Amino acid sequence: MLTPGEARALLPNSVVLDTRSRSVFYREHINGSRSVSWEEFSVPNLPFRGNLLPPEALRKKLESYGIDNNQPVLVVSESKNNWGEDGRIVWMLRALGHRSAFLVDGGYSSLKQLGAPVSNQGEPKTHGSFQIKADPKLTATSSEIKSNLKNRKYVFLDTREDREFLGETPYGESRGGHIPGAKHLYYKNLLHDDGSLLSSEEISEKIKELGIGRETIIVTYCTGGIRSAWMTVVLRNEGYNAKNYAGSMWEWSAGNEKDYPLTVK
């Protein structure tokens, strides 16, 4: 996570990925930035739509956006109006071994307010060279969750809206409810109304209120691993041992009730 000032200072030597809608991007964007969406890096069809594409396909796509292993990547969004797409891209890059991928606190607006140069010009055509060195500490799988449903070292953190946690299925889930024993924290509860992040102290207090300690393994999930990826990035920035379940409810709810239990209690 970078403050707007830190991100502004890095701009000249960074790749900037913009996760706002393409129509908004083409009206105005940071000079030299590229428009991306989480979908283009993910499996297209349900129930596995939250999962990333195979490594070789990911590598080629990332290189086409000018991504190098050693060049910082700044990911921006319109934080108060998005779904955590910026966090999904940062989580993906870090899970693939990129060590300098960052969320920008406050998103696009915060950079613009600091005088970052903007335009409506086309995107650059630079090509990168990226080698994947996957970091398994950032990703949880359904088998890991199944094996640890009753492991007190694990906490499953549901980052969806209240209605989803309580059983509604608005986004194509096969079944409703949440993973038994899961804690609930809607991801936008870590944002101020203007889209900027709460302070470290405020975030720690919210996590503490859920009974989650810093030694706990936190597995975040949502519908397709987007909001939960954002949560993972934020929590790891605060020193928590968090990992994202990319398949999330699309994948989990498609399994049988015995092996992939859900509850509304």
Description:
This protein has 10 helices and 11 strands. It is of the alpha/beta class and 265 residues long. The chain has 2 domains: 4-119, Rhodanese-like domain (Oxidized Rhodanese, domain 1, 3-Layer(aba) Sandwich), CATH 3.40.250.10; 136-254, Oxidized Rhodanese, domain 1 (3-Layer(aba) Sandwich). A 5-stranded parallel sheet has the order 7-11-10-8-9. Strands 3-1-4-5 form a 4-stranded parallel sheet, with helices on one face. β4, α4 (85-95) and β5 (101-103) form a beta-alpha-beta unit. The radius of gyration is 18 Å and the shape is globular. Residues 10-120, 150-261 form the Rhodanese domain. This is Rhodanese domain-containing protein. InterPro entries: Rhodanese-like_dom (IPR001763), Rhodanese-like_dom_sf (IPR036873), Thiosulfate_sulfurtransferase (IPR051126).
Structural class comes to alpha/beta
Cα end-to-end separation: 35 Å
CATH-derived architecture of the largest domain: 3-Layer(aba) Sandwich
Helix segment tally: 10
Q: Name the CATH homologous superfamily of the largest domain.
A: Rhodanese-like domain
Roughly what fraction of the amino acids lie in strands?
Answer: 5-15%
Mean pLDDT: 96
- State the share of residues found in helices, binned by percent: 25-40%
Number of beta strands: 11
| Count of individual domains | 2
CATH class group of the largest domain: Alpha Beta
Low-pLDDT runs of 5+ residues are: none
Radius of gyration over C-alpha positions, nearest whole angstrom? 18 Å
Biggest sheet record: 5 strands, parallel
How are the strands of the largest sheet arranged? 7-11-10-8-9
Shape: globular
CATH fold group of the largest domain: Oxidized Rhodanese, domain 1
H/E series:
HEHEEHEHEHEEHEHEHEHEH
